[in-house]
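pinging the channel bc i need a second pair of eyes. not urgent but kinda urgent?? the chain im working w is below, pasted from the shared doc
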Amino acid sequence: MTKTTMTVAIADITFERALQFRTYTDATHVADLASVWETDGKFQERPVLSRVVDEEGNVKYYVKDGTHRILGAKEAGAEEIEVDVVEVEDFEGALFEAIDVNTRHGKAATVDDLKLIIRAVKDSSRVDEFKKSRFAWDKNKLRALLKCSPRKFERAIVDTNAEFDLERDYEIQKLYETGMSQVSIAKEVECSRRTVQNVIAAYEENKAATFSQMAEMSTPEDELGGQPADFDQMAKNSTPNEDLEDQPATFSQMAEKSTPWDDDVIELTDDYDFEDDVAEDVDNLISSLCRQEELNVVKHTATPKVDIDQWAAMFFSMSSEEQTKALAAINVIK
């Protein structure tokens, strides 16, 4: 590939993370290179950039090789740097240029570095060049690209192998649900029939276990004995007491309930005027009852429903003495 040597403004260089196949930038190495630049004003080996020109004529320079050198020059105060430039068609072309140089770099790639490269290959449009089937790498071709030892390679492909297995199993299950035969599935997925058989067997086993759990969860059980509930008894228990619900509450029933608002309790003192004060207290009482009804303090399932109008009519038909007793009975006065 033809290289062109030229000077480029550091500000025009794009440091694309997707093209950096080192898991970290070595700050110490950058500082050492900055010292070299301050002394010599150049590096023995020029950084290499990939040049991409889009359809509108916009130019981008991506780092193919020399990230630490460029950062070292920048740290030393340089605004421009002499580089070698290669022309590539698009960003993916720059990606594979960066892969090629990083795998041949003097500083050996770590397993994590190789994982970054493999991930980039898997996500690229050229992934099929490095696969032997839909869901398996061609190990020889991929290792030739990575230029690493077999031991490092096997450790580096663990994650993507697991992803391929999950994708393959899902595809097998999906085709199985359509009624396709195992032979046809194996051909479509590009795997052995034994693999298809194993995946389908595990799939059916998981389905059976799931249905069993759902059946157990949907069976109502007695809280004490763990026995299935008597549905007739459940129906009886869930039927509201219509006799109580349709009847107004009596004063004795109301007395069993404490008043939740302290400000509704009236203190009867020696100067309490039954003629003048009782009307106001009755209004407060009725308002209090209404508030109880609105906030569901008196619940139909626990306490008979209160007919406020009927209750008020009963109250006003009483004598003053009876009204006083009624107010005391429901804790409105003391």
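so The CA atoms of residues 114 and 156 lie 6 Å apart. and The beta strands are 3-9, 13-14, 48-53, 59-65, 80-87, 131-133, 136-137. — does that match what u expected or am i reading it wrong
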